């Protein structure tokens, strides 16, 4: 399959997902649908007990959870990594393993979505404990695992989708102090004039020194639709690249 055909298949992804079985495969069907959705869509999920939730998906991420009547199920207009536990609880309250039907509806473009949303992989990891992690894990999960593995080296980490940036890991003080320089760097490396901007935003890797981290560096990681940044102390660019790829 050529890249052009694969992109076209993704953009055209809208259909009835039909009746589904109440197993872990149900969750994989749902998360696969999220992963395949680039243009704004509403996935209507019906549960065995008669409840229904509407999931607003855009750019492969969950941006909103609403009830059948249109009320916001979490009371938030923006979703980000910090809302993962709340979203998982809403799904568990409806007995997520008892989904009986899913239907996808195209919403057209231009929706005023805020926040960076939640990835399918982050939802799947919480809903199926111990599921086999693969390279398709969400970038936020990979950043979190890296920060957990190297707590003395990672000051904070951030993720950016579109123009929205959110902290993934780090203390409140670190996030507040580092957000401005990280946002400044991301603005520069995603500018069209930056020579590797295109490749960085798909599956690229870039490490560089920055005045805000004396003796450390920024590691910028791309995954289609998302950019991640690790703020690393006492580490040079070459070591950071090697450690991430190890």
Please describe what this structure looks like:
The chain has 246 residues and is α+β, with helices and mostly antiparallel strands. It has 8 helices and 11 strands. It has a 6-stranded antiparallel sheet. The chain has a 5-stranded antiparallel sheet with strand order 8-7-11-10-9, with helices on both faces. It is elongated, with a radius of gyration of 19 Å. The two termini are 30 Å apart. The model is unreliable at 1-22 and 132-136 (pLDDT under 50).
The number of E-state strands comes to: 11
Q: Biggest sheet: strands side by side, in what order?
A: 1-5-2-3-4-6
Helix segment tally: 8
Distance between the termini: 30 Å
SSE arrangement, N to C: HEHEEEHEEHHEEHHEEEH
Largest sheet: 6 strands, antiparallel
Q: Write down the overall geometry.
A: elongated
Indicate the mean pLDDT.
Answer: 76
Uncertain parts = 1-22, 132-136
* Share of helical residues: 25-40%
Radius of gyration: 19 Å
Structural class call reads alpha+beta
The percentage of residues in β strands lies in 25-35%
């Amino acid at each position: 399959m050529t890249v052009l055909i694969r992109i076209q298949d993704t953009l055209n992804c809208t259909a009835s997902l039909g009746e589904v079985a109440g197993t872990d495969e149900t969750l994989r069907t749902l998360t696969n649908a999220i992963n395949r959705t680039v243009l704004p869509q509403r996935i209507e999920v019906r549960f065995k007990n008669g409840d229904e939730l509407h999931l607003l998906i855009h750019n492969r991420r969950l941006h909103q959870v609403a009830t059948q009547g249109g009320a916001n199920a979490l009371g938030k207009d923006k979703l980000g990594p910090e809302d993962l536990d709340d979203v998982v609880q809403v799904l568990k309250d409806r007995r997520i393993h008892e989904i009986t039907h899913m239907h996808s509806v195209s919403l057209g473009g231009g929706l005023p979505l805020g926040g960076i949303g939640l990835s399918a992989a982050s939802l799947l990891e919480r809903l199926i404990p111990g599921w086999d992690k693969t390279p398709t894990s969400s970038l936020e999960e990979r950043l979190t695992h890296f920060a957990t593995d190297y707590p003395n080296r990672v000051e904070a980490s951030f993720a950016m989708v579109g123009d929205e940036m959110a902290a993934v890991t780090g203390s409140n003080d670190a996030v507040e102090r580092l957000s401005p320089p990280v946002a400044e760097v991301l603005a520069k490396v995603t500018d069209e004039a930056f020579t590797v901007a295109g490749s960085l935003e798909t599956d690229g890797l870039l490490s560089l020194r920055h005045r805000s981290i004396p003796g450390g560096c920024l590691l910028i990681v791309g995954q289609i639709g998302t950019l991640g940044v690790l703020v690393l102390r006492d580490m040079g660019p070459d070591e950071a690249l090697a450690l991430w790829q190890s």
